[in-house]
Task: inverse folding
């Protein structure tokens, strides 16, 4: 029993991280209809910049963190100014290709600026097992994972309020719903895009930091984006709750599958289970758990 | 209602007097590739009037509104807004200069509630910064409440209290049109562009909408440009009418005069004519 709970808990924690990455995708997709292939690299780039600034300057982490936010806002601004602005009303596939290019640019710039060796991101996050859980429930959980889950939960709550209750959040949703109508009430698409990419950059920074604190900042970090894809298929590309629930389902699902199905098929199921689940799901409900139903009028 | 009706403030944003020319288009031409949507059109809209724009399907009426609020940029001609001449408007510029509009095919934010849709109309008037908004606290909260009050007044005015919290995608068409009007009114515009606000409505809904339009014009002093196919409505509501046909202006004047014009009768009867 304890073992089952342990498995589910650790799945939830991993799932929270997937949710975070998926959230970055959803934000940009909702507001601009772009599938941002560079989201994973943004996580890497943000974490790399964060670690790099600390390494090179020796500044304390809160200052380096704020500076990194500044860098991500700059990236957002540059993307809008030099890329998106010139491609308004282009086909989605063209915009998608652009984000592939962007992924390479960010990866290259990160490499040039900060080097390609693995960086430890030591910002004093808690580590080791939670004694409390171990003593009281005989359950093993990593403190870092609990901490990561908490941070992610706070971030998600924060984004929910931001989206539902504030002027900018409303403007973001407005742009996502109808460009022309948004323009007619004086919302500037350009400003909104910079904000969305900045928020996505911030989410990427948080995800990259938490992930990096666990296993070091290295180039493989950009691959977590690949885990976000099945999450998006499950949750729907346009749904924030979908990204969260989808992430949790995938996280728990793959851990359970690893333990209970893995031995039957010879293990290593964790690597592909998420895709299988997503694929199966696509057949049943292509718009995702929470996505809007796609009705093609003919 | 009384708090909402503040003619001094409503009419005051440009300081223009009733009867002065608020907007003028001069020799505007607009083409999409080979299609000439608008050819050399000039007319003006004076402060305080209801100006109807009519004409058969494809005459260029919607295109004209799109030029005025900056969606389309004409290849030729100028737009004079409050005495300032310009080649084109930008949508943001038009909105922040007091031009609001509704759309022929309702363009609402479908996933949002009536209340949130109308609140977007207040966006340009809200100033609190990003940080406060994120915290949803302090000046940002105060501002939200203040603007929310204004929005409630508009909701009362248009009698849509019951659908306040309903996602607009679920509303019947007639009510969607009303919410769209509410969103435009929330901007407290000086010029309100209405693109077929009564299309697809039943008689009763049309009467309601006519009454609202007249109230907006008379009580708030809002200048209105109205595209409408229903001649009865046009005759009732408008002070002056401009008639377009195949992208050209064929008549301009008071409703009864325009209605009697032979060119207009021909255009509506589809009498062939040379371009
Ligand atoms: N974005 C566009 N691209 C290409 N052609 C356009 C575009 N917008 C309008 N047109 C063309 O311009 C002409 C005028 O169209 P417009 O929509 O302004 O007419 P309208 O008077 O509003 O007609 P209706 O009463 O049917 O709404 C039409 O021939 C239309 O096909
Ligand atoms: Mg039209």
Result:
């Amino acid at each position: 029993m304890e073992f089952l709970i342990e498995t589910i808990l650790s799945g939830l924690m991993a799932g929270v991280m997937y949710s975070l990455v998926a959230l970055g995708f959803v934000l940009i997709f909702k507001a601009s209809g772009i599938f941002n292939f560079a989201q994973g690299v943004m996580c890497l780039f943000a974490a790399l910049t964060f670690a790099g600034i600390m390494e090179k300057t020796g500044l304390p982490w809160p200052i380096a963190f704020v500076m990194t936010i500044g860098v991500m806002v700059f990236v957002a601004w540059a993307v809008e100014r030099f890329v998106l602005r010139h491609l308004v009303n282009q086909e989605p596939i063209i915009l998608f290709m652009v984000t592939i290019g962007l992924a390479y640019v960010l990866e290259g710039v990160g490499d040039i600026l900060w080097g390609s060796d693995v960086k430890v991101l030591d910002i004093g996050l808690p580590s080791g097992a939670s004694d409390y859980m171990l003593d009281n429930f005989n359950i093993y959980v990593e403190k870092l994972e609990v901490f990561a889950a908490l941070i992610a939960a706070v971030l998600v709550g924060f984004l929910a309020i931001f989206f539902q209750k504030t002027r900018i959040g409303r403007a973001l949703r407005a742009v996502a719903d109808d460009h022309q109508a948004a323009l007619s009430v004086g919302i500037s698409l350009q400003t909104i895009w910079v904000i969305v990419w900045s928020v996505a950059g911030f989410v990427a920074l948080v995800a990259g930091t938490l992930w990096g604190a666990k296993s070091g900042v290295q180039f493989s970090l950009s691959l977590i984006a690949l885990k976000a894809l099945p999450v998006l298929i499950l949750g729907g590309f346009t749904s924030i709750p979908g990204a969260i629930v989808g992430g949790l389902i995938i996280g728990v699902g793959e851990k359970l599958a690893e333990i209970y199905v893995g031995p039957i098929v010879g293990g290593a199921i964790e690597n592909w289970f998420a895709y299988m689940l997503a694929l199966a799901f696509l057949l049943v409900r292509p718009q995702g758990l929470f996505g809007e139903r796609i009705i093609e009028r003919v | 209602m009384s708090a909402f009706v503040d003619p001094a403030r409503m009419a005051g944003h440009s300081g223009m007097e009733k009867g002065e020319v608020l907007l003028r288009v001069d020799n505007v031409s607009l083409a999409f590739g080979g299609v000439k949507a608008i050819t050399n059109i000039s007319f003006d809209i004076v402060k305080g009037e209801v100006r109807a724009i009519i004409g058969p399907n494809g005459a260029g009426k919607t295109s004209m509104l799109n030029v005025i609020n900056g969606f389309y940029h004409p290849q030729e001609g100028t737009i004079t807004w409050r005495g300032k001449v310009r080649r084109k408007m930008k949508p943001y510029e038009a909105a922040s200069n007091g031009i609001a509009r509704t759309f022929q095919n309702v363009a609402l934010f479908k996933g949002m509630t009536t209340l949130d849709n109308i609140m977007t109309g207040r966006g340009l008037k809200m100033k609190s910064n990003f940080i406060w908004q994120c915290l949803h606290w302090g000046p940002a909260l105060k501002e939200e409440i203040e603007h929310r009050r204004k929005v409630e007044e508009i909701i009362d005015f248009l009698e849509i209290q019951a659908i306040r919290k309903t996602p607009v995608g679920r509303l019947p068409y007639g009510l969607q049109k009303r919410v769209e009007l509410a969103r435009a009114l929330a901007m407290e515009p000086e010029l309100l562009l209405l693109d077929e606000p009564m299309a697809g409505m039943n008689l009763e809904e049309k009467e309601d909408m006519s009454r609202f339009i007249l109230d907006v014009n008379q009580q708030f002093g809002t200048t209105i440009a109205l595209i409408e196919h229903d001649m009865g409505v046009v005759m009732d509501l408008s002070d002056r009418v401009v008639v377009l046909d195949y992208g050209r202006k064929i008549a301009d004047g008071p409703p009864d005069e325009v209605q009697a014009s032979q060119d207009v009768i021909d255009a509506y009867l589809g009498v062939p004519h040379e371009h």
